[in-house]
Specification:
The chain is built from seven helices and ten strands. It is of the alpha/beta class and 207 residues long. Helix 3 runs parallel beside helix 7. It is elongated. Belongs to the universal ribosomal protein uL1 family.
Length: 207
Amino acid sequence: MLAGLALVCTHALAASVAVRHSALAAPACVRAPSSSRAAVSLKLSKRMALAEKSVDAEKLYVPEEAVGLMKKLASAKFIETAEAHIRLNIDPKYNDQQIRTTVALPKGTGKEVRIAVLAEGQQAEAAKTAGADLVGWEDLVESISKGTLDFDVLIASPPAMPKIAKLGRVLGPKGLMPSPKAGTVSTDMGATVAEFKSGKFEFRCDK
């Protein structure tokens, strides 16, 4: 059972909202945060003031209503986004309480994803056909070892894993090291590249 769910809106107009869910509570709701301007006087823009009037700080919004309100108040010239933060009451320092997997968004993330593939033969050809930006073998390993990381996702075939073991110090800090759990070690390179190109990404728990 989720102990809490926080939905943080990065809207330029809407204030952050919190989604709470517990074993003893009714269906998850969203409450707009109470204003802190009682302590600090802030000058609001016209758009922010209008958005604030549309949000009841004392009301609990169901998620569907909260999302609808976010869309209604979105008036920035750029594409606004939202983040979901979920409290699972787990301790990630224990292996059996870690969460790391992938999800494919039905409409992608809205961002261009540069994909590098470490494979050879038919796997390499399949990756190129699927739209991989960089495909290589020894040459790609050498390029990465020199610090060239002009890609967002690195996908490797199983035979390539021994070759990139030495690249852990370069790829690890950037979160680019291929891993079966992240879906970035694949025997079906064409399908994997297509999935990541269309919006598949990894998520994991943090501290």
